[in-house]
Design a protein that fits this description.
alpha+beta, 13 strands, single chain, four-stranded antiparallel sheet
């Protein structure tokens, strides 16, 4: 992209960063620049799926200067019309179907330009609690936010907006855009995009599916972020009271280690006078108790995290308070954004006893009403390391093994009870291709679930399934015994499957440690990269 275009986008970003209410003009003129559209083409031309034809039957190849001039001419005289998006359905984990939109390739270039301009305007103003489809953010940044801030949460409201992309009210969306954009040609172009709709089995329907949909969804749901943050300011009050049992033990220990003189000054006792065995006993009891009262009725907190249309609200308070928050959010979505909460996915769970499902992880906070007394070697909250005592009220993330095994079973890696089987569809491939595909599955799972507290035990089970499924597949290909494949010594041996160099596991060569003691997160910039690694599942 030419430096002048880069400078213009950077200027837009800085202006909106300094002033969240800044008005943006002359955006359509920027979109009509040849160097800008060429840069948009360069950014999407190599992505998988972009050679798929849209409803017009045209692909992205054959892009030339004549095509650019034709597109720019249609934009300048405002005769450009978006083609309807071709819709396909792919299966979801719950048995339902997920809609997949395939825009016309040339429309993708214009949509990419719109997406870049809108991102420059709105990205600096988006809430820190929003993590979906944003540069430098992703699933792991959302999980890191939960782990670092949700200590002591009792309830969680799991929210899911029903058909978010398909049920966006176009008039409300355009009204939100007009708050910061004063360029009617640019607004009209977005109107054309929204009204182009989707074509499904020859029937034209209205939708916002396309390259620009994620940023439009974030702009639309930004009002929800602001609303929930205001709820937090309204209801958050109090400071956790001290735990009386903890403070009593602390007082006993201090009286054994110190005494006060006539002026009330605390003076250490000589070591020979301190009953060290009793001090150690009291310290051990203290390590099993929280310093603050987790059941303090005069303390309320509300925390919120959103990834795309999936969001969770952590609540410290009563269940009635959690129900009230859910109802307020439901009413706001219905009245202000014309959106409905999914009845089968939006519910309230107790974090200690039930846990919650969020972004493929099982989220829990402490044990079932008990203190674990387990210390961790490094802090999961900061990158500085060090020690941190925890007594069972820290958020914990778990790999949902039942769901992974179910997914493996659906893709013929194993039986329904987790016993490895051969993958018949891969038998025709060469040995190195088979092992590379199994490695891709392992790499995707390990990278994504790296933050989990039970990563070690879970990966043992997953490694077993993948390793022996690979052995079954190779044995079926060569019509040999499984034991023979396990004993192979060549470069395509099963041992290579679990070798860090072959798998490319981070940490296998000392670069980063993903053992259970490692408390760092990977921030996946683009969540689709995980889906690409998991494409064979």
């Amino acid at each position: 992209m030419a430096s002048t275009v880069q400078q213009r986008l950077e200027t837009i970003r800085k202006r909106n960063s300094k002033d969240p209410h800044a008005i943006n003009k002359d955006l359509y003129r920027l979109l009509c620049r040849k160097d800008f559209l060429s840069a948009c083409y360069q950014s999407i031309k190599s992505k998988a799926g972009n050679m798929t034809p849209g409803t017009d039957g045209i692909t992205l190849d054959g892009y030339s200067e004549d095509v650019v001039n034709e597109v720019i001419g249609a934009l300048k005289d405002q005769s450009w019309q978006f083609k309807p998006v071709r819709r396909k359905y792919i299966p979801k984990a719950n048995g339902k179907l997920r809609p997949l939109g395939i825009p016309a390739p040339r429309d993708k270039i214009i949509q990419k330009g719109i997406e870049r301009i809108l991102s420059a305007i709105y990205e600096p103003t988006f809430s820190d609690n929003s993590h979906g489809f944003r540069t430098g953010r992703g699933c792991h940044s959302a999980l890191r936010s939960v782990r670092s801030k949700w200590s002591g949460m009792k309830w969680v409201v799991e929210g899911d907006i029903e058909g978010c992309y398909d049920n966006v009210d176009h008039s409300i969306l355009i009204g939100i855009l007009r708050r910061k954009i004063q360029d009617e040609r640019f607004i009209n172009l977005i109107w054309k995009l929204l009204r182009a709709g989707v074509e499904e089995e020859g029937v034209l329907k209205s939708s916002t599916i396309g390259v620009v949909s994620p940023v439009l969804a974030n702009i639309y749901l930004h009002d929800l972020d602001i609303f929930v943050e205001k709820l937090a300011q309204k209801y958050n009050y109090g400071k956790r009271a001290d735990n009386k049992e903890y403070q009593s033990l602390r007082g006993k220990r201090d009286r054994l280690r110190f005494y006060r003189d006539a002026n009330g000054k605390q003076i250490p006792r000589p070591k020979s006078e301190i009953p060290m065995q009793e001090v150690r006993r009291i310290s051990k009891e203290m390590s099993k108790l929280p310093s603050k009262d987790p059941m303090d009725q005069n303390y309320k907190r509300l925390l919120y995290v959103r990834y795309a249309d999936d969001w969770v609200i952590g609540i410290t308070g009563s269940k009635a308070f959690a129900n009230n928050i859910r109802e307020e959010v439901r009413v706001f979505l219905l009245e202000h954004l014309k959106l409905n909460l999914s009845s089968d996915k939006t519910h309230i769970s107790h974090l200690s006893s039930e846990g919650a499902d969020f972004l493929g992880f099982k989220l829990k906070c402490g044990g079932a009403g008990t203190y674990s007394g387990r210390a961790v070697a490094k802090s999961k909250i900061s990158n500085l390391g060090g020690s941190k005592r925890t007594v069972g009220w820290q958020p914990r993330l778990f790999v949902p093994m039942d769901k992974i095994i179910k997914r493996f079973s659906e893709k013929n890696f194993c039986t329904s009870n987790g016993f490895p089987t051969k993958k018949k569809g891969w038998i025709m491939y060469d040995d190195d291709v088979i092992i590379a595909r199994y490695n891709s599955v392992l790499r995707g799972i390990r990278n994504y679930y790296a933050p989990a507290d039970n990563l070690g035990t879970s990966m043992n089970r997953i490694n077993f399934i993948v390793k022996y499924s690979c052995a079954h597949t190779l044995a079926a290909k060569h019509r040999s015994r499984i034991s023979k494949q396990l004993r192979r010594k060549d470069h395509n041996s099963i041992k290579e499957l679990l070798d860090g160099k072959s798998m490319g596991f981070p940490g296998s060569e000392g670069k980063r440690d993903f053992s259970r003691a490692s408390l760092h997160f990977i921030c996946i910039q683009n969540p689709r990269s995980f889906k690409q690694q998991m494409c064979y599942m």
